[in-house]
Amino acid sequence: MTIRKSTIGLGSLLVLAVGFAGVAYASFTDQSKFAGSRFSVGSADLKLLNDLAGGTDASNLVDTKPAPSYDNISPQWFSDYLIKIYNNGTQPVTLTSNMDYLTSNDPSNIRELLYMEPYEWDDIDADGVVDEGEQGISYGKKVFTSWKSTGFNFGQLQAGATKGLIMRFSAGNISNSKMGAVGTFDFMFDSVGI
């Protein structure tokens, strides 16, 4: 019985000693931390250059520009419209374009006769005019209905980069039944983060 009491006494003493050691250990702990860890989500911010010969400062960047208007279109007509798009965001994006329209704004279906063919444009001298040697590859030619449904993919546009495009609008054969027809269309550019 003495051995048992001694074992219980020794066990109790050992538990108390471990408890005091834990209290002593806890009283000498310390902590370090990193305060204010900041995480920033990237942004997508596509802009148009208002003045094609201007730079990319904020005063020349716009979200929307009036679309061109064309009158007296005849068979085999074409006209070029120049644009520059700037990636004002913080990450590279894939640049695409689609036509947008309401069928009520094109009651005679001239969208089936009109085409758009975009070309790369490297405005080497930054004068806002297509000079010899500045027109690049074609991205293909699509009728407006196809431009709406499948669009164009212009590839990657890095943050802080500008993409120049020549938008070549054209018409195919136009029948007499379309004479005097008018349609209103919008076109847009989208950026998808990579």
Describe this entry's structure for a reader.
The chain has 194 residues and is α+β, with helices and mostly antiparallel strands.
The percent range for helix content is 10-25%
Please state the second-level CATH architecture of the largest domain.
Answer: Sandwich
Q: Might you state the CATH topology name of the largest domain?
A: Jelly Rolls
Mean pLDDT score: 86
Counted up, domains total 2
- What shape does the CA trace take? elongated
The counted number of beta strands is 10
The H-and-E topology, N to C, reads as HEEEEEEEHEEE
Number of helices: 2
- SS-based class: alpha+beta
Low-pLDDT runs: none
CATH domain class name of the largest domain = Mainly Beta
> What's the gyration radius in Å?
34 Å
Whole-Å distance between the termini?
78 Å
Q: Please summarize the sheet with the most strands.
A: 7 strands, antiparallel
Secondary structure layout:
Elements (H helix, E strand, L loop, with lengths): L1 H26 L18 E4 L11 E2 L15 E10 L5 E8 L13 E8 L13 E4 L3 E2 H6 L2 E6 L4 E10 L14 E8 L1
Antiparallel strand pairs: 1-2, 1-3, 3-9, 4-8, 4-10, 5-6, 5-7, 5-9
Question: Tags for this entry?
Answer:
194 residues, alpha+beta, Jelly Rolls, 2 domains, 16% helix, elongated
Summarize the structure.
The chain is an alpha+beta fold and 194 residues long. It contains two helices and ten strands.
